Amino acid sequence: MENENIISMPRIGDQAPSFEAVTTQGKISFPNDFKGKWVILFSHPADFTPVCTSEFMTFGRMAKEFEALNCQLIGLSIDGLYSHIAWLRTIQEKIEYRGMKNIEVKFPLIEDVSMNVASKYGMIQPGESKTQAVRAVFFIDPKGIIRAIIYYPLALGRNFDEIKRALIGLQTVDAFSVALPADWRPGDEVIVPTAGSCGVAKERMNDHSGAITCHDWFFCTKPLPKEEVEAKLGEKL
Question: What does pTM read for this prediction?
């Protein structure tokens, strides 16, 4: 049937679909248990697989960096709880990779054998696999709104620098009411005003303070020192 090819998935700007689940850190009610925090909800294809292992080691190593940015990591695959526990124990006790070893994963890893959560978030992509979740990453803000989504296929591991950069970027957008150019990193110039305020942008061209640079009436930038971003986000970047 044609309907079998239709994948339901939330979009940027939607309220994150709610669910209750069992995890390696106990039961959770999402997103209610995480109000006031950013959340990165991500899926992986399967436990005891090499690409996923490299990713979980990286997430585990960086967990404190995300926590410092008021962000909770939550993983998911359609494996069972005991598989999750055994796999994470194996990672901690046996795996050494790229200088990472003794990595203890303390953030929740959701058991989703029923595919309930994966289906709500469009993590099962039949063209890639009908029995495994793809590598989805959902950035969810403190109000429970989906702010960004990144999808990777089964064979391609994620770029964790980009995941952290995207989180910092979203928080910077909110804190300073600016937009960010391509490849932006803390300390780079930002775009003013926000998209759609062309009239204001024209006025900016008459600014003589030297703080704002207008490349044309629709494209103006200004400095935003890294120290100001760190002060707002409360973390050294």
Answer: 0.90
167: three-class secondary structure by DSSP: helix
Residues 184 and 137 in one domain: no
pLDDT winner (highest mean) among 52-61, 124-133, 217-226: 52-61
The DSSP-derived string for 15-33 is BPPPEEEEEBTEEEEETGG
DSSP annotation of 231: H
The residue length of the chain stands at 237
Question: Quick check: is 172 in a domain?
Answer: no
Q: Supply the CATH number for residue 147's domain.
A: 3.40.30.10
Task: Given the residues 52, 71, 214, 220, select the one marked as catalytic.
Answer: 52
Do the beta carbons of residue 192 and residue 220 sit within 8 Å?
Answer: yes
The residue to which tokens 């960086």 are assigned: 62
What is the sign, positive or negative, of the torsion defined by CA atoms of 143, 145, 150, 153? positive
Distance between CA 111 and CA 28 in Å, rounded? 11
Whether 198 is catalytic is no
The partner residues of 222 in beta bridges, in order of sequence, read 190
The angle at the Cα of 126, spanning 120 to 127, to the nearest 5 degrees, equals 135
User: pLDDT value at position 126?
Assistant: 87
Q: What is the pLDDT of residue 204?
A: 55
